[in-house]
Amino acid sequence: DIQVTQSPSSLLASLGERVTITCQTSQSISNNLNWFQQKPGQAPMLLIYYATSLQTGMPSRFSGQYSGRSFTLTITSLEPEDIANYFCLQHYSAPWTFGGGTKLELK
Amino acid sequence: QVTLKESGPGILQPSQTLSLTCTFSGFSLSTYGMGVGWIRQPSGKGLEWLANIWWDDDKYYNPSLKNRLTISKDTSNNQAFLKITNVDTADTATYYCARMRGPPFDYWGQGVMVTVSS
């Protein structure tokens, strides 16, 4: 199975701050990784697909990059509505595996 | 407009079989490249992928649940199903179904809570 290590598990940030979350995979998965945002009591929402593509309707302050087995989600300027949990998912090979999640909170 | 909605028993006892239904609209599981997956999330914890079913009836399962999972679909009625046999308290979670079309899980249902308790 491909392991996905997500960091940090929690993050305190200020409004307007640049935020970066990372997922590291145990094997090469090309660009087969998605990022999801989940607000309390809600279902996850697709943010970024195939590592770098912004899902339709999601704000352009969200972006994804990758290099090798390291994938990053960046929020260029944190907004109040971005306070949520963030997960990555590798869908390169079964069993698909999620990162452990990052809880983003306001400082 | 794509929507998905999960339904299930709410509460069941250990050793019983959990039957979940995903009723969707706005797409068809007979369309080339379309799929539905099931994911679960214990309260306060992370997400676990369970199974996928594709338009051509191809199926994939998470081997961590060994042979307890069965995924199926009813294309005519726009439904997908997941059965988990021999449940125990570790299966207590919110269960989601989600669409796959190109990138996986672009639309999700609201989730259904399932509690396993004696």
The rounded Rg of chain A comes to 13 Å
Tally the helices of chain B: what do you get? Answer: 0
Strand content of chain B: over 45%
Mean pLDDT of chain A: 96
Task: Tell how many strands the DSSP assignment of chain A holds.
Answer: 11
First-residue to last-residue Cα separation of chain B: 40 Å
Termini separation of chain A: 36 Å
Largest sheet of chain B: 7 strands, mixed
Number of helices of chain A: 0
- Compute the gyration radius of chain B: what is it? 13 Å
Summary keywords:
heterodimer; A: 107 residues; mainly beta; seven-stranded mixed β-sheet; four-stranded antiparallel β-sheet; 11 strands; B: 118 residues; 54% strand; globular
Structure overview:
The complex is a heterodimer of chains A (107) and B (118). Chain A is built from no helices and eleven strands. Chain A is mainly β. In chain A, the strands form two sheets. In chain A, strands 2, 4, 5, 6, 9, 10 and 11 form a seven-stranded mixed sheet that branches. A four-stranded antiparallel sheet of chain A has the order 1-3-8-7, with no helix packed on it. The relative contact order of chain A is 0.34. The mean pLDDT of chain A is 96. With 118 residues, chain B is mainly beta. In chain B, 0% of the residues lie in helices and 54% in strands. In chain B, the strands form two sheets. In chain B, strands 2, 4, 5, 6, 9, 10 and 11 form a seven-stranded mixed sheet that branches. A four-stranded antiparallel sheet of chain B has the order 1-3-8-7, with no helix packed on it. In chain B, β5 and β6 form a beta hairpin. The mean pLDDT of chain B is 96. Classes of the chains: A mainly beta (107), B mainly beta (118). At the A-B interface, β5 and β10 of A face β5 and β10 of B.
